[in-house]
Every structure is written in structure tokens, then in C-alpha cells.
């Protein structure tokens, strides 16, 4: 299933090939994408795929009067993931998600990411089951096709506010296409941006080989609304010669953190 270009999944070229309660398979094009803060190749699109595939397999376990929201996601990458993707940039990354354990108030989905049969990463998504809100919107109809031929940052509607210093900042402009069915910024979009600002903070001022994202952990605490003051802020916690750790926050229009993340990177 290809999604309309006027939806978050369609905007980034996500395609779901298997969709059910026991297994979900989806893909995303990830080759040739760059971090707008550093200009370096990025694995950020995989964060979008984590949220979709892992969240989808959890979503299938809901009752008729329930909806799901992601509470946390994690992504663990092989060291050379960017290089593997670059060897065949036109081949999408595929995620296979399966449920783990029984359904309770929270569900856990497990994912494996492959690129031409090479395992790139493993991931998890935890989802809360909530009473189905009345404001859930159906995906709009529209044309499908490849993602727009513009940069990843343009598709995400993010712009660089600060780069090169202690804090790395991307501003999240309002774009209805990026909102999910609850009318807030899609969790996959936010996860991508949080990885970008954290990776940039780790590599700020670095003159030798860059440190590559090895793990991404994201916690969704509150609704994140886009707007003039909405932003993603990455700050390095510790950076050494061979490893670095950074935290990132999605700060909403009210000035409060809505989503937090931590990235660990290695040489």
C-alpha cells in the first residue's frame, strides 16, 4: 500500500506491503538523505519507519473502541548502516515488525530492518491503548507516487536556527501534511528531527572522522504542536575521541518539552 502524498507517510515514500496483527512489513527510501545541520549522510528516515511499522503492528491489537499512541521507540544500528544504504541508494530499507508479548495497557512491537537482505538495525515501539478520541481523522485521498524531489529538510518543514555551537536547533514550521490522524506532528517526523539535532550536537566542531549514530531512544510525553516557536534542540552530554552521547528535545509552542530523545554515536 502506497500512501497519498498529502499524508505524512506518503510525503516520505513509506509503502506498506504486509499489514496485519501478526506481522507488518513496510519500507522507506533512505539513500542520499543528509542532515541539514551538518550536510552529512543521515539515517534519520529509519526513525520514521520505526514509528510506522512498530506502531502499526501494535495498532492492530486494539479493541474497537481504542486507539494507539506511541509512548517510546528505540533504534539500534549496525556501525556502517549509512555505507550499506549508499551502495544501493535507490533500494528502500525494509522493516518487518511483529508483536512481542500479550496486549495489556501497553503493547510492544519488535522490528528488524534490512537493505538487500543485509540486517541494518533492530527496533522497538511501545504503544499505549487509549479510548478512541473523537478527533481522529481519516487519511485524506490523493495521488500517490515517489516523495517530492526536494531535500529531506524541506519535506520535514524544518529549517536550521542554530548550528555549529553547543546547541543544535531545527525549527518545525507548521505543515498540515505532517500532522497525524490526531492533528499533531507525526511521531516519525519528530523522531527524525531529534536524531538530526542530537547527531549534529555530537559532531559539532569535530574535525576528524564523524561519530555515527548507533542508538536512538525517544520518549513521547505530550502532544507536540508545530508553530513559530516549535523547535528541536540537541545538546551534547559527552563527546570523546571514539564515542559521544547527546540529548534532544522537541519543544512545543508553549515552551515546554513534549518529546525527549537520547542518541549514542561511535566512530
TrEMBL record:
Transmembrane segments: none annotated. CDD domains: PaaI_thioesterase. Residues 183-250 form the Thioesterase domain. It holds the Pfam family 4HBT. This is Phenylacetic acid degradation protein.
Amino acid at each position: 500500500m502506497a500512501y497519498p502524498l498529502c499524508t505524512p507517510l506518503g510525503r516520505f515514500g513509506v509503502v506498506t506491503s504486509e499489514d496485519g496483527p501478526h506481522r507488518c512489513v513496510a519500507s522507506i527510501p533512505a539513500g542520499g538523505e543528509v542532515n541539514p545541520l551538518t550536510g552529512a549522510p543521515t539515517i534519520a528516515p529509519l526513525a520514521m519507519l520505526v514509528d510506522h511499522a512498530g506502531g502499526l503492528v501494535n495498532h492492530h491489537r486494539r479493541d474497537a473502541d481504542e486507539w494507539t499512541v506511541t509512548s517510546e521507540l528505540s533504534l539500534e544500528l549496525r556501525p556502517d548502516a549509512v555505507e550499506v544504504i549508499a551502495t544501493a541508494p535507490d533500494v528502500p530499507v525494509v522493516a518487518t515488525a511483529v508483536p512481542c508479548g500479550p496486549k495489556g495497557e501497553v503493547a510492544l512491537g519488535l522490528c528488524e530492518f534490512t537493505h538487500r537482505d543485509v540486517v541494518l538495525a533492530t527496533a522497538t515501539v511501545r504503544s499505549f491503548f487509549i479510548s478512541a478520541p473523537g478527533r481522529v481523522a481519516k487519511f485524506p485521498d490523493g495521488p500517490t507516487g515517489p516523495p517530492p524531489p526536494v531535500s529531506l529538510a524541506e519535506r520535514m518543514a524544518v529549517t536550521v536556527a542554530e548550528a555549529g555551537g553547543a546547541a543544535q536547533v531545527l525549527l518545525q514550521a507548521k505543515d498540515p501534511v505532517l500532522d497525524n490522524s490526531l492533528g499533531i506532528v507525526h511521531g516519525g517526523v519528530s523522531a527524525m528531527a531529534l536524531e538530526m539535532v542530537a547527531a549534529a550536537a555530537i559532531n559539532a566542531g569535530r574535525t576528524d572522522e564523524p561519530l555515527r549514530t548507533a542508538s536512538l531512544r525517544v520518549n513521547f510525553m505530550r502532544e507536540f504542536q508545530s508553530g513559530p516557536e516549535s523547535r528541536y534542540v540537541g545538546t551534547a552530554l559527552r563527546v570523546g575521541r571514539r564515542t559521544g552521547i547527546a540529548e534532544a528535545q522537541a519543544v512545543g509552542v508553549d515552551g515546554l518539552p513534549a518529546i525527549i530523545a537520547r542518541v549514542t554515536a561511535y566512530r
